[in-house]
């Protein structure tokens, strides 16, 4: 079953027509979708861009873990457009100390859930639909 994750930040707020930088940090969004099940999940998240991307993957993995009946006897293929997250979780890229806790949680899930993690271009990622900030 194909699953998709996407995370992003909006580092500018539009207020009364003017653009101002946020002072409390980035306003991020985490998103995942499972098209075969008709599931789309979105939530706000405060963090840096790669933290949002990791949080999206981790939210998806948590959903899979707490709903095993939906994934029984299915191959779980996860796709994301974050080159860094995909390659760090697949142990093909160095992970700095700041992102290590996120990567390690994804690796813990890998011991519980048999999933593959692959990169796709952003324009092919259905989890990012309608999340472009202007």
The low-pLDDT segments are 13-23
Tally of helical segments:
4
Strand content: 25-35%
**At the first level of CATH, what is the class?**
Alpha Beta
Largest sheet: 5 strands, mixed
CATH superfamily: Ribonuclease H-like superfamily/Ribonuclease H
And the CATH topology? Nucleotidyltransferase, domain 5
Q: What would CATH call the architecture?
A: 2-Layer Sandwich
Q: How would you spell out the order of helices and strands?
A: EEEEEHHEHHE
Describe the structure.
This protein is α/β, with parallel strands linked by helices. The protein has one domain: Nucleotidyltransferase, domain 5, CATH 3.30.420. It is 31% helix and 31% strand. It has 4 helices and 7 strands. The strands form 2 sheets. Strands 5-4-1-6-7 form a 5-stranded mixed β-sheet, covered by helices on one side. Strands 2-3 form a two-stranded antiparallel sheet. Strand 4 and strand 5 form a beta hairpin. Helix 1 packs parallel to helix 4. The longest helix has 18 residues. It is globular, with a radius of gyration of 15 Å. It starts with a strand and ends in a 15-residue tail after the last strand. About 8% of the residues have low confidence.
Give the secondary structure arrangement, pairings included:
Elements: E1 2-10, E2 12-15, E3 18-21, E4 27-34, E5 39-45, H1 49-66, H2 68-71, E6 76-80, H3 83-89, H4 100-112, E7 115-119
Parallel strand pairs: 1-6, 6-7
Antiparallel strand pairs: 1-4, 2-3, 4-5
Short description:
This protein is an alpha/beta fold. Helix content is 31%, strand content 31%. The chain contains four helices and seven strands.
């Amino acid at each position: 079953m194909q699953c998709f994750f996407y995370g992003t930040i909006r580092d500018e707020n539009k207020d009364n027509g003017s653009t101002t930088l946020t002072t409390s940090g980035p306003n991020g969004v985490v998103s995942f979708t499972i098209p075969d099940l008709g599931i789309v999940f979105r939530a706000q998240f405060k963090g840096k861009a790669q933290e949002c991307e990791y949080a999206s993957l981790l939210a998806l993995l948590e959903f899979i873990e707490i709903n095993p009946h939906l994934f029984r006897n299915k191959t779980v293929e996860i796709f994301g457009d974050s080159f860094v997250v995909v390659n760090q979780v697949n142990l093909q890229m160095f992970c700095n100390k700041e992102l290590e806790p996120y990567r390690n949680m994804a690796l813990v899930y890998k011991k519980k859930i048999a999933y593959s993690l692959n990169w796709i271009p952003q324009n092919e990622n259905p989890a990012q639909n309608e999340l472009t900030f202007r």
